[in-house]
User: What shape does this take?
Amino acid sequence: MARDLVQRLTALGRAHDLVRPIPGEGGGKAALLADLLGVLLGPYDTTGAVGDRIRIEAPEVHVGESAATTFALIVHELATNSLKYGALSAPGGSLGIRCTAQPDGVVLVWKERGGPAASAPAGPPGFGTRLVLRSVSGQLGGSIDREWGAAGLAVTLRMDPARLAA
Assistant: This one.
């Protein structure tokens, strides 16, 4: 458990390093969306690097310094839930992430397969769900939709490209 926690915290730190400004160079940096996802999700893959159970397809989309922390928290929440309840909780489970970019929005589709059937949680949303909803709409100018089914959870995240790049 301690090793897993350290790996996840290290991944969050590495994700922040991708967009941290370099002293003396002014301004922030931007990371590629695929690189950021790879760093964030590495600890959740079997080998500690994305590619075994987790697949990512993304065009060249930039995530800026302001949006990186928000985006990292959203990905961390989704991945943690997958590890606890979804596809990543099962030995044969997998996660596919496909992103597309249009001038009016960046769309990320998260599909879990090979795990237990997904069902909508009963009761009011928990802290993590509320955090994700507020972060997506308030900070990334977008929306999130979830589909629970026998094949697994599918999440569609829509984000404003200008806010994502900020």
